[in-house]
Design a protein that fits this description.
- The complex is a heterodimer.
- By secondary structure, chain A is mainly α.
- Chain A is globular, with a radius of gyration of 19 Å.
- In chain B, strands 7-6-5-8-9-10 form a six-stranded parallel β-sheet. Chain B has a four-stranded antiparallel β-sheet with strand order 2-3-1-4, with helices on both faces.
- Chain B starts with a strand and ends in a 19-residue tail after the last helix.
- Chain B is an alpha/beta fold.
- Chain B contains 16 helices and ten strands.
- In chain B, a hairpin with a 2-residue loop joins strand 2 and strand 3.
- The chains are: A mainly alpha, B alpha/beta.
- At the A-B interface, helix 5 and helix 7 of A face helix 7 and helix 12 of B.
């Protein structure tokens, strides 16, 4: 049942992505509606699959790399569905849905190793840690998409080559604002998530900081976003530089999130293999 | 009778001359005031926009009239003749008609499809009627021109994505800022294009506008029109701190905003985006500023470049428009052919009427004791004799009017009634209504 739901979700995301890519080229109301509905269907199937898996395991199903990635893709789609309604910015879908589809595909391709589930995962701190960080990462992914859109649009305007993309993309100010909002909400969430992680670590290993690669990279990522937020609020950074930093920040998120899981050994690996 | 059009536009004139044209179109003085100097010219229409100067006239002595109108044009533009002569074009009859139709339909515009030109032609026509320099032919031609332009606009999509330069500039502003309502616009210098851009921005919801001009009087004049405030010219760099969009079109030779002016101020602006629309030739804004982050600079050529992108899509529409213009030119030509007959008929009637009046006057002075009733009866009698007498020749002439042989009959009639001295004295007016 669960694997059927997951396959459905992947299919829906792919169809939605194709729909949104068509929407990028042709501004048709119908295309957007169809793609949006398909994404909603995908998110529902996906959510159901995650719930089933978690019930089966007795804890939140984010303990393997594929699970984590799939969970992340789900959050990303949810973030987009909510933001696109609030911000009335449909074209964002053309940039977010491919990202979600890629993550989803990745999660099916990654090797799964069996981990015995234990009481280690049954803490409120873990739930807070995971939920807050994943929400933050999803927002950063949206910021990343907005940053790419910003850079494309900015390039078109600066170089005075106003092609099709120029017509379809929203205004620079709007994209910059989305970037800003995602950062404003995402950064506190990330901070909360990391603090929860450290608190939990101190209960498990008696020390909040253990020089684990995951911890180091997480802190680096946090610092990048802290710098971006500071520059934005205090110095008035915006536009191109802020967009580049958002892209850089999200790359750091990916490294922390996936790279460390896959390539580096650390004690966090006992959670995510 | 021949129709001539002589002029120069953005295609034939180099940049230096275009600048001059832009100044010319702001002159208060109209060359129509000096139309009396052109003795060979019957009717005259004069159009001036910042991209073109056109003189349209009718004459029966083409060579002399052309020379006179050339003189008039060169004197009006105010540059030495050798400098101008190479850049002028002359169109004759059908060519002239077609050219005017194309101009009005915005096919000859710097920005094809831009809607302003028709209004400018209408204004010019109003000016010409005010100076009473247009008669039967040009009245008809101009009215035809308006309807052709309207046809082109409604039957083709040429004006649909229609994008005058100022419109393109406003679109860009929207792509940079999104909402324009809370944005502040700075207008440096004045000029047709700049004012149009300002109007477009106001139409898009901009509420806050500042005007800067070297002469305060001009600044106040503009400010009053756009409900804007004014700022001193010397303070320009500081004014840049709290505006978002700058429309510049001064006659300055050197850039008035430089990279060095702007760089430190962008930091003080907290990097809020700044959009320069530089309509001036030569440029007002140092092109280097486009290198600064969050600064966007578009000059007139850039805007033209954007608009040309749309043009390629509209090429097909332009062909449709050309077809409309061709057929309308042909129709006007047909009308024109009947026209040679019309002044002849008018002259014939006028001569008969003049004779009648003179004879009535003579008779009445010889018979002083005629009552009012009798006088009126005699007047009516003579009038109806004339009408009946002239009816057949007039019908004959009208019937010949579309034939190739008409010139022969027109000429014959004029000799028969000795009308030549009458013609050309004054242009017949539309009200004589034989068209």
């Amino acid at each position: 049942m669960e694997s059927v739901l997951l396959t459905l979700a992947v299919t829906f995301y792919c169809v939605g992505t194709v729909g949104y890519l068509i929407f990028l080229v042709r501004d048709r109301e119908g295309v957007h509606k169809a793609s949006w509905s398909v994404l909603v269907a995908g998110a529902l199937c996906h959510g159901a699959a995650i719930v089933l898996r978690s019930l089966e395991k007795g804890h939140l199903a984010v303990t393997t790399s594929p699970e984590a990635l799939s969970f992340f893709a789900w959050f990303l789609v949810l973030a987009y569905l909510i933001l696109s309604q609030r911000l009335r910015l449909r074209i964002l879908g053309s940039f977010v849905s491919p990202l979600a589809a890629v993550f989803m595909f990745g999660s099916t391709l990654l090797p799964t190793r069996f981990i015995p589930s234990g009481s280690l995962f049954k803490s409120t701190w873990v739930v807070v840690h995971v939920a807050a960080l994943f929400a933050a990462n999803a927002l950063f992914a949206v910021a990343f998409a907005a940053a790419i859109m910003y850079l494309l649009q900015e390039r078109a305007i600066k170089q005075k080559r106003l092609g099709h993309l120029y017509a379809r993309l929203p205004s620079l100010e709007r994209l910059d604002r989305i970037n800003h909002i995602c950062l404003l909400i995402g950064f506190p969430l990330m901070t909360v998530g990391l603090l929860a992680g450290f608190l939990y670590a101190s209960t498990v290993w008696k020390s909040p900081w253990n020089w684990d690669p995951k911890e180091i990279f997480a802190l680096l990522t946090w610092l990048i976003y802290a710098v971006l937020l500071h520059e934005r609020l205090a110095v008035g950074w915006r536009g191109r530089r802020a967009a580049w930093l958002a892209i850089f920040g999200f790359s750091a998120v990916l490294v922390t999130f996936l790279g460390v899981n896959l390539f580096l050994e650390g004690h966090h690996t006992i959670f995510v293999e | 009778m021949d129709i001539y059009l002589i002029g120069m536009n953005h295609k034939t004139a180099p940049v230096a001359l275009r600048e001059r044209l832009a100044q010319v179109c702001r002159l208060d003085q109209s060359p129509l005031e000096k139309v009396r100097q052109c003795r060979a010219v019957d009717e005259l229409f004069y159009l001036s926009t910042c991209n073109r100067v056109e003189f349209l006239f009718t004459t029966s002595d083409g060579g002399r009239a052309l020379e006179e109108v050339r003189e008039l044009m060169f004197a009006h533009v105010g540059l030495p003749r050798p400098q101008l002569e190479a850049h002028t074009y002359v169109h004759h009859n059908l060519e002239a008609v077609r050219h005017l139709f194309r101009v009005a339909s915005s096919l000859d515009s710097m920005v094809v499809g831009e809607p302003q030109i028709l209004g400018q032609i209408k204004d010019a026509y109003r000016e010409a009627t005010r100076h009473k320099t247009v008669g039967v032919v040009l009245n008809r031609l101009l009215h035809k021109t308006f309807s052709v332009a309207k046809r082109v606009r409604t039957e083709t999509n040429i004006g649909c994505h229609a994008v005058s330069i100022s419109y393109a500039a406003v679109e860009l502003a929207r792509k940079i800022f999104g909402e324009l309502k809370d944005k502040r616009v700075l207008l440096i210098g004045a000029g047709e294009m700049a004012e149009l851009a300002a109007q477009h921005l106001l139409a898009q919801g901009v509420r806050d506008m500042v005007v800067v001009n070297r002469t305060l009087a001009r600044a106040m004049d503009l400010a009053a029109r756009f409900r804007a405030s004014t700022a001193p010219f010397e303070n320009l760099p500081e004014t840049l701190l709290d505006v978002d969009i700058v429309v510049s079109s001064t006659g300055a030779v050197e850039p008035i905003v430089t990279y060095r002016d702007l760089k430190p101020r962008m930091r003080r602006r907290k990097n809020r985006p700044l959009f320069f629309i530089d309509i001036a030739v030569p440029r007002d804004i140092d092109p280097e500023v486009n290198r600064l982050d969050n600064v966007y600079l578009y000059d007139i050529d850039d805007l033209k470049g954007i608009v040309d992108l749309n043009l390629t899509e509209r090429r097909q529409e332009a062909q449709k428009a050309e077809h409309i213009i061709e057929s309308e030119t042909f129709r006007f030509h047909q009308w024109l052919q009947t026209l040679d007959v019309v002044p002849t008929i008018i002259a014939l009637r006028r001569k008969a009427e003049a004779i009648r009046q003179a004879e009535l006057k003579k008779t009445f002075s010889q018979l002083p004791d005629l009552g009012e009733k009798e006088r009126r009866a005699i007047a009516v009698l003579t009038d109806s004799i004339l009408r009946k007498m002239l009816h057949d020749p007039i019908v004959f002439l009208k019937n010949k009017s579309t034939r190739e042989s008409k010139r022969l009959f027109v000429d014959f009639t004029q000799q028969l009634f000795n009308l030549n001295e009458e013609r050309g004295q004054s242009a017949p007016s539309l009200d004589s209504g034989e068209g």
